[in-house]
Design goal:
By secondary structure, the chain is mainly β. It folds into two domains: about 25 residues, no CATH class; about 210 residues, no CATH class. The chain contains four helices and 13 strands. A hairpin with a 4-residue loop joins β4 and β5. The longest helix is centred in the N-terminal third of the chain and has 11 residues. The N terminus is likely disordered. The structure holds copper (II) ion. Copper (II) ion binds next to loops.
Length: about 240
């Protein structure tokens, strides 16, 4: 061991590269994947299908679900924290968006995963994200404070045999949703996948029963409605 170490210090750059490869051999070769799933309670989400009921008893469907995830932080059982700066735009209809990749997350047991549904204040400024169609479609109007939509949860709901539109939109820094999941997660070199599941119904309960008739079916210009949705959002994700 000592000979290898001295060798590394004095030898050429080429030799150093070889030493470095040996050091990292015990870590996962493939990036850790977070696989996203979407349900209404225990059923896999199907788009444009009425017949889902939230805690308030509203009969609703989902036609679009698009949101940002960012500021991922993993803490292992020895207290080491691994932070990632990547911003992920997840359009649930786009299968390519449903796997998030994390390189250089060592194998081990983790006790906490924290992230945002939305963007921190440094990213939540108009034009702060790359100028893509997808990001531009998430823009929050400058007249309403600028930045980006953190989430668009859209669909329809039925009330007394009439159909209404539903657009649950969150934006503005104070409505960013912090997800903090404390549970033991074991990442092994051969098994480094985490299943992260969103239950849509959780947006409408815990701590507030959100009734689309009473609290509103368009949240964007309604700060009271957005505050409730934001608080309800803290437990929409579970790891299974
Ligand atoms: Cu909006």
């Amino acid at each position: 061991m000592r000979i290898i170490f001295i060798g590394c210090v004095i030898a050429s750059a080429l030799f150093q590269v070889r030493c470095k490869k040996t050091e990292t051999a015990s870590q996962p070769v493939t990036p850790t994947q977070i696989a996203l799933q979407f349900t209404v309670e225990n059923e896999i989400l199907k788009f444009d299908t009425l017949g889902y009921y939230n805690a308030a008893g509203n009969n609703y469907s989902i036609s679009n679900l698009i949101f940002y995830l960012s500021a991922f932080e993993f803490e292992n059982t020895t207290g080491q924290i691994y932070k990632f700066n990547d911003v992920y735009l997840v359009d649930v209809k786009n299968k390519n968006n449903l796997n998030l990749s994390f390189t250089d997350l060592p194998a081990g047991t983790y006790k906490r995963v924290t992230f945002l549904i939305g963007l921190d204040s440094l990213h939540n400024l108009s034009n702060a994200l790359p100028n893509t169609i997808e990001n531009n479609n998430m823009a929050w109007p400058p007249a309403m404070g600028g930045g980006y939509h953190f989430i668009k949860l859209e669909g329809k709901f039925m009330d007394q045999n009439q159909m209404f539109g539903m657009a649950i939109h969150l934006g503005r820094n104070q409505n960013c949703v912090v997800i903090n999941i404390t549970q033991n997660i074991s990442l092994k070199p051969e098994m480094n996948r985490i299943n992260l599941s969103m239950n849509i119904n959780e947006w409408f309960k815990n701590p507030h029963i959100y009734d689309l008739n009473i609290d509103g079916n368009f949240t964007m210009s309604d700060s009271a409605a957005m505050a409730k949705i934001k608080q309800n959002g803290s437990d929409v994700f579970t790891i299974n």
